[in-house]
Amino acid sequence: MEKTIQSAKIISGLIITAVILLSVFFKGYTSEKPEPAKPAAATQPTGTPVDGQVLKSESLNEEMTVSGTLMAYQEVSISSELNRKVVAVHAKEGKFVNAGTLLFKLDDADLLAELEQLKQQEKLVLLNERRLKDLIDREAAIQQDYDQAFTNLKVLQAKIEQLKVMIAKTSIRAPFSGYLGIVNVYTGAFVTPGSPLALLTDNSRLKIDFAVPEKHANTLKTGDEVQYNVESNDKIYKGRIVAHEAGLDQKTKTLLMRAVTDNKGGTLLPGQSARLTLRLSNTGNALLVPNQALIPSSKGYSVYVVNAGKAGFKSIEVGERSAYSVHVTKGLAPGDTIITSNMLRLTPGSAIQLVSIK
């Protein structure tokens, strides 16, 4: 009986052992396989991040802005040449008058009376001259008497012409066509030489005087077009250079130039300030670099350029500059890529990483 019980225990132990082994076997078979090791992440590129810009040829108009003053093409203060009383005022304030229009009439009564007296004397002297001339032809008078009579006639005639000039000056006329300003005298006033009677202005055209620096004294020529604007409106006007001074102003080292512009509509007035835009040159293949790309130094300017993933350092020469860009005249070529940001972190030859490019 004991043997039977012992045998049964042995069999039970064997069965339990078999079950455990089978369980371990199947668990190992059905478990997930380990994931393969991931490869090491690729090494990220190193270098200073920068922005770049590819240079290309552009059309560039180099211009300069200067200030000028509008002036009447012709302007004169009408005045008298004689000490006379005004007997008539024909001038109308603020009106347009043609050349030769009578504006003021001065008293000439005494001059006319004197002229009539001289004309009567002329008749007598002329008769005497003709009588002696006839006697000379017949050899009945001496040449000296005739010469004296002829001279007296010419002197009297000269006095008559002189008096006619004086009488003509009592009629004050417009020397050219233009607009009259304010009339300063009225009928009955006594005027003297130089007394301002009225201002006559020709505004059909206007003159503009302006000064240019010594650097551009030989750039602008007679006949060149200028553009300008005034404070009273936003319109752009045009004019042409007609003259300039023979030399520079010794104090300011500038050259005074004069342009003329049409003013048919009369919208512009003498005395207005004008802001002129002067075209200095027109370049068809200019290279323009943003101002922020420039690196100033005591020797001039430099820029960083992209050179095979590294920062190259180039010295340049510049010309005219605006608020946003500068004209590079030497040191760069079309197709070069310049660096426009993060320059303070760069050194010549340092690695870079282009973030954006224009």
UniProtKB/TrEMBL annotation:
<feature type="domain" description="Multidrug resistance protein MdtA-like barrel-sandwich hybrid">
    <location>
        <begin position="75"/>
        <end position="201"/>
    </location>
</feature>
<keyword id="KW-0175">Coiled coil</keyword>
<feature type="coiled-coil region">
    <location>
        <begin position="146"/>
        <end position="173"/>
    </location>
</feature>
<dbReference type="GO" id="GO:0015562">
    <property type="term" value="F:efflux transmembrane transporter activity"/>
</dbReference>
<dbReference type="InterPro" id="IPR058792">
    <property type="entry name" value="Beta-barrel_RND_2"/>
</dbReference>
<feature type="transmembrane region" description="Helical">
    <location>
        <begin position="7"/>
        <end position="26"/>
    </location>
</feature>
<dbReference type="Pfam" id="PF25917">
    <property type="entry name" value="BSH_RND"/>
</dbReference>
<protein>
    <submittedName>
        <fullName>Membrane fusion protein, multidrug efflux system</fullName>
    </submittedName>
</protein>
<dbReference type="Pfam" id="PF25954">
    <property type="entry name" value="Beta-barrel_RND_2"/>
</dbReference>
<keyword id="KW-1133">Transmembrane helix</keyword>
<dbReference type="Pfam" id="PF25989">
    <property type="entry name" value="YknX_C"/>
</dbReference>
<keyword id="KW-0472">Membrane</keyword>
<dbReference type="InterPro" id="IPR058637">
    <property type="entry name" value="YknX-like_C"/>
</dbReference>
<feature type="domain" description="YknX-like C-terminal permuted SH3-like">
    <location>
        <begin position="287"/>
        <end position="353"/>
    </location>
</feature>
<feature type="domain" description="CusB-like beta-barrel">
    <location>
        <begin position="208"/>
        <end position="279"/>
    </location>
</feature>
<dbReference type="InterPro" id="IPR006143">
    <property type="entry name" value="RND_pump_MFP"/>
</dbReference>
<comment type="similarity">
    <text>Belongs to the membrane fusion protein (MFP) (TC 8.A.1) family.</text>
</comment>
<keyword id="KW-0812">Transmembrane</keyword>
<dbReference type="InterPro" id="IPR058625">
    <property type="entry name" value="MdtA-like_BSH"/>
</dbReference>
<dbReference type="GO" id="GO:1990281">
    <property type="term" value="C:efflux pump complex"/>
</dbReference>
